[in-house]
Amino acid sequence: MPDTFLAILSVRNEAGFLLEWLAHHRACGFGEFLVFSNDCQDGTDAMLDRLAEMGLVVHKRNEGPYDAQGIQFTALNRASDLPVVRRADWVLPLDVDEFVNIHVGDRTVQALTRALPEATAITLTWRLFGNAGIVPYEDKPITEQFTHAAPEILYWPWRSAMFKTLHRNDGSYGKLGVHRPREPRADRLADARWFDGEGRELDDKFKTTRIFSNYGQPNYKLAQLNHYPLGAMESYLLKADRGRAVHSDHMLGMDYWVERNWCVEEDRSIHAMTPKMRAELAALMADPVLAELHENAVAWRKSRLVELLEHEPYRALMGRLMMTPPARPVPPQAARYLTQHARRAQELSTKPPTKP
């Protein structure tokens, strides 16, 4: 019996993008979807209810109370005991702006696990796709609009090398996590085999704590995770209004934008999946209920944007987005300078206090 692959998603006010995301991941081999929603004003929860009626997703409302670590961690903690999770062979938690991009075989997750048959976990490293000067929000596929990305090899910031983990649901970990499975079980770690998107086997630190790949090296030979954290400038205002996925009470600003607005290289590799994605999307949009909910969500986004621009903080943020050029790569020497100080700070934070 073939392995089952489950994608887990948490969303709020994302109905304008949800069907593309679902269509893409159905095309690349995921057969099960568990989606949590919370506090939606744009009909995302209604869209997920319809998708659940059609048997395409399992939808759970995640209305709180929330754990200290935030909404997304709460959802993942609640997911562990659900039947859709227990029956999955492989699990991958994702965000709606992340798209799996496989570079081997038929470009499915099944092809990736066949390429790494000994793996029990595979890290999918982000490739950050920048804004490329696009101002208006348009109802077009994200993967087709944004094609300029970070260079394949970056030396800074370390966040650019964060990964999500496709892992076997074999009981080696007690809890799901945003970037990696948590609560490793000591009696199972010896059998865990972690590999990266380049096909390299990873050391033991990845089995327990690591959440980012080694930067300053290629990481995408077999697979990457296309990450579109910014979108159009207008969409970024709406994202700032929504709040961060993990820390929803933190308003997004220019720091988040600058570290992710990479437009150095063109990467259209995900477009190899466009015909399959478009076919899946057309099948979804053929449902009149889903089509209407999508159109309503697009209208909501445009209306909400007008409301936000009536307030100075959002007008000011839009002006700064328009004035700020794309990020430029930090040279290796400068990156070493920053890394040196980061390691020193880490050492000081773990050093026992001296006695008076």
Automatic annotation (TrEMBL):
Keyword annotations of the record: Transferase
* Pfam families for this protein: Glyco_tranf_2_4 (PF13704)
* Superkingdom, natural source: Bacteria
Any one Gene Ontology MF annotation carried by this entry is: transferase activity
InterPro entries given in the database record: Nucleotide-diphossugar_trans
| Key word Transferase present | yes
Supply the SUPFAM superfamilies for this chain.
Nucleotide-diphospho-sugar transferases
Q: What is this protein called?
A: Glycosyltransferase family 2 protein
Q: What is this organism's lineage? A: Bacteria, Pseudomonadati, Pseudomonadota, Alphaproteobacteria, Rhodobacterales
